[in-house]
């Protein structure tokens, strides 16, 4: 079968599935109207997003791994918390080498997580609660077990040969160039069946798709249509930077002497990352998304805002490229945060804030000092939930879950942790099971959890914190409730106050004649902040011992005060 024919066949197959899917869930796949608020903001600008790592959220069948029915059972919790959209990291069939980021079928659900019927149930239950579903689209690579790759590797003339990147080595035992995988070792793997190397930016089990092949592009675009028709409101696009490689395979420059945790040289990914062609693909994906009023979120690691701006395109690429620059501020430094906020405020699109995710240590202990971690967790919540932009929460952040990395190499599940041990312990620490209650395994499962539950689950869990009005969870709920109803927080401009203060980060959010002040004490000593003469602030949300008297705000160590400005 020639490529064209096969491509047409694939499209037909996808189209049939789409039709079948849309028939069975016709009611669900309603076109959502383009409703905007008074300031013209769309649902994804006002919404609060919440990332769920499905292996670790809730296990309905007690096999030790979370699943879709588990998520469905927690929708009321999410609604009550104040979540408008959940982003579920990959739940498609996968050999789980990279825990789902190695997809072997884009149009189904991994049996470990349930079935398409379970997905439909989740989607319809979520819709009843007005919670949208965002899926994770792994665009750069597939699993090496995907039928496309199995066919691709079978012979040099196979139909899917050109769906991946195959090259001859430089010489016997020598890969085509010096590119190293971000997960360690050469980015090329020799395959003896056809005596060529294939390229993998991540694990060898994650061969890169060849996005220069139009059949790949069209087929992948259709994959998104399938899910939009099934009621999905958007995608988080995985590793978008890595879609294209220099066709001449120019060697990457070495930027400093020495070796990284995997024993590889320090390379700049000049010729295999952030190539301009990426933006053609983003524009294409956006066109499809626009057919469904869907949102595209990008995993966009950038050096600065100028680089981040490129992902908005001319308003025709990603609506929500994640601003990871916030996660590079790893200490409570008002001046550093001020700088980052000022920078993103003049970005060419809507800001997207992230403070934790499944690849980086949790914010709780990244910022925590070991003594005031709960207070600091509230402070960080107040920060990213009151800025102008869309926050993406990470499950467990709202209860103060702690990064808990394995202590022994033999316990590591994430392959990069095994490969890089002990320098690189992998990402298990930020992926531990959600802590629901004080029962065994924190109420996540009655089976053996796939990762151990951190010892902190006795004090930091949903049940215990729901009863404590001073808990991290109670604080998150308060701020989120207020964020959903206060026009200044939803739509207001940002204006820094007292930019020379080295302890307090303070700002105003103003919409029309309404202003809210947010004052965050990033130090361990009490602090004061003076508002403009003649103004005072009525408390809206404040932590213990933080208050306003006249135009003076007093903040307890790591205290938060959020108040309505009155004149
Ligand atoms: C980024 C994902 O967030 C990460 O978890 C994954 O390992 C890589 N992309 C490869 O897909």
Largest sheet: 8 strands, parallel
* Chain oligomer state: single chain
The portion of residues forming beta strands comes to 15-25%
Query: Roughly what is the average pLDDT, rounded to an integer?
Result: 94
pLDDT < 50 runs, ≥5 residues:
1-33
Distance between the termini: 75 Å
What structural class do you assign from the helix and strand content?
Answer: alpha/beta
Number of DSSP helical runs? 16
Description:
The structure is a single chain. By secondary structure, the protein is of the alpha/beta class. It contains 16 helices and 21 strands. The protein has helices at residues 3-24, 43-46, 68-73, 75-81, 116-128, 147-154, 214-229, 278-291, 305-312, 334-345, 363-367, 373-385, 415-420, 462-466, 472-485, 487-491, and strands spanning 49-52, 85-88, 132-138, 166-167, 188-191, 196-199, 234-238, 254-259, 265-267, 295-298, 320-321, 352-354, 390-394, 493-497, 504-511, 514-521, 527-530, 536-542, 547-549, 552-555, 560-566. The protein has an eight-stranded parallel sheet. α9 (305-312) links the parallel β10 (295-298) and β11. α1 (3-24) runs parallel beside α7, α7 (214-229) runs parallel beside α8 and α12 (373-385) runs parallel beside α15 (472-485).
């Amino acid at each position: 079968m020639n490529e064209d024919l096969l491509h047409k066949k694939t499209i037909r197959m996808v189209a049939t599935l789409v039709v079948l899917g849309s028939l069975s869930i016709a009611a669900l796949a309603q076109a959502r109207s383009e409703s905007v608020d008074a300031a013209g903001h769309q649902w994804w600008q006002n919404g609060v997003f919440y990332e769920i790592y499905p292996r670790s959220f809730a296990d309905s069948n007690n096999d030790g791994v979370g699943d879709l029915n588990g998520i469905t059972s927690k929708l009321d919790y999410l609604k009550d918390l104040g979540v408008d959209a959940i982003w579920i990291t990959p739940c498609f069939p996968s050999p789980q080498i990279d825990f789902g980021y190695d997809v072997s079928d884009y149009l189904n659900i991994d049996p470990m997580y349930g079935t398409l019927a379970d997905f439909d149930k989740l989607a319809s239950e979520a819709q009843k609660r007005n919670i949208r579903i965002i899926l994770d689209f792994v665009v750069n690579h597939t699993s090496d077990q995907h039928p496309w790759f199995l066919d691709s590797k079978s012979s040099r003339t196979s139909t899917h040969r050109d769906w991946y990147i195959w090259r001859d080595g430089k010489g016997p035992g020598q890969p085509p160039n010096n590119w190293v995988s971000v997960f360690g070792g050469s980015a090329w793997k020799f395959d003896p069946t056809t005596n060529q190397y294939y390229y993998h930016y991540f694990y060898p089990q994650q061969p890169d798709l060849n996005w220069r092949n139009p059949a790949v592009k069209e087929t992948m675009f259709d994959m998104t249509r399938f899910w939009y028709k099934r009621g999905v409101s958007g995608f988080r696009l995985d590793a978008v930077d890595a879609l294209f490689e220099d066709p001449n395979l120019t060697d990457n420059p070495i930027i400093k002497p020495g070796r990284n945790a995997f024993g590889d040289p320090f390379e700049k990914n000049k010729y295999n990352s952030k190539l301009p062609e990426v933006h053609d693909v983003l524009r294409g994906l956006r066109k499809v998304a626009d057919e469904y009023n869907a949102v595209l979120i990008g995993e966009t690691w950038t050096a600065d805002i100028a680089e981040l701006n490129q992902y908005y395109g001319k308003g025709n690429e990603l609506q929500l490229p994640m601003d990871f620059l916030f996660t590079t501020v790893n200490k409570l430094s008002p001046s550093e945060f001020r700088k980052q906020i000022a920078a993103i405020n003049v970005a060419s699109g809507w800001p997207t804030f992230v403070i934790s995710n499944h690849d980086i240590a949790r914010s709780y202990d990244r910022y925590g000092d070991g003594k005031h971690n709960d207070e600091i967790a509230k402070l960080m919540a107040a920060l990213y939930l009151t800025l102008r932009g869309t926050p993406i929460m990470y499950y467990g952040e709202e209860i103060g879950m702690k990064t808990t990395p394995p202590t022994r190499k033999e316990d590591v599940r994430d392959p990069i942790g095994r490969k890089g041990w002990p320098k690189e312990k992998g990402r298990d620490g930020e992926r531990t099971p959600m802590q629901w209650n004080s029962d065994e395994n924190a109420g996540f499962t009655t089976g053996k959890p796939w990762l151990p539950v951190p010892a902190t689950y006795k004090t930091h869990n949903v049940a215990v914190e729901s009863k404590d009005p001073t808990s991290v969870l109670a604080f998150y709920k308060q701020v989120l409730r207020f964020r959903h109803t206060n026009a200044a927080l939803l739509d207001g401009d940002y204006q820094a106050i007292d930019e020379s203060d080295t302890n307090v980060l303070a700002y105003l959010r103003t919409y029309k004649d309404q202003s809210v002040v947010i004052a965050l004490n990033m130090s361990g000593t009490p602090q004061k902040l003076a508002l403009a003469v003649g103004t005072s602030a009525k408390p809206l949300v404040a932590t213990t011992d933080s208050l306003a008297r006249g135009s003076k705000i007093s903040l307890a160590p790591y205290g938060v005060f959020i108040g309505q400005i009155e004149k």
